[in-house]
Amino acid sequence: MLAGLGRWLRVAGYDTAIAERGCPDRDLVAQACREERILLTRDRRLVEIRRARDRTLVLAADGIDTCAAELSRRLTLDWTRSPLSRCTLCNTKLQVADRRMQARLPPGVGQSGAPVTVCPTCGRLYWEGSHVR
Ligand SMILES: [Zn+2]
Question: What is the pLDDT along the chain (133 residues), one digit of tens a residue?
């Protein structure tokens, strides 16, 4: 339900698990408890599950921007905490890419001298482009 917001939390550097589509609510609550995560949802019924109340934050907003603003108001979030330090696809912490890996970059990319990073799990490369600003 909030996968887009989850990817933005990863962009900001927050350790964020994104639920698989169709994952049962009880499994989500169990994962949140086991991994000591805050479960973000827009589904008010989820807090009816035993053990969910202490781990769940029900967002009232309905768009990514408004959910991000609501989250910032309700939690102490710093969206510039550690930008581009996690893979947006799989949540793994990024590492500096070596020269061999940087050879996979499209032509003209990565010439700025800014570090190019790679996800050690899925192999995705990250570099600073105009989107960072
Ligand atoms: Zn990855």
Answer: 699 999 999 999 999 999 998 999 999 999 999 999 999 999 999 888 888 888 999 999 989 999 999 999 999 899 998 999 999 999 999 999 998 988 888 887 766 677 899 999 999 999 887 666 6
Rounded to the nearest angstrom, the distance between the alpha carbon of 94 and the centre of ligand 1 is 8
Distance of CA 48 from the midpoint of ligand 1 (Å)? 33
Q: How far is the CA of 87 from the centre of ligand 1 (A)?
A: 5
Q: Model's pTM, two decimal places?
A: 0.87
Domain total in the chain: 2
What tokens does 31 get? 């994962």
Q: Do 94 and 133 fall within a single domain?
A: yes
- What is the C-alpha to C-alpha distance for residues 85 and 132, in angstroms, rounded to an integer? 12
Domain extent at residue 125: 84-133
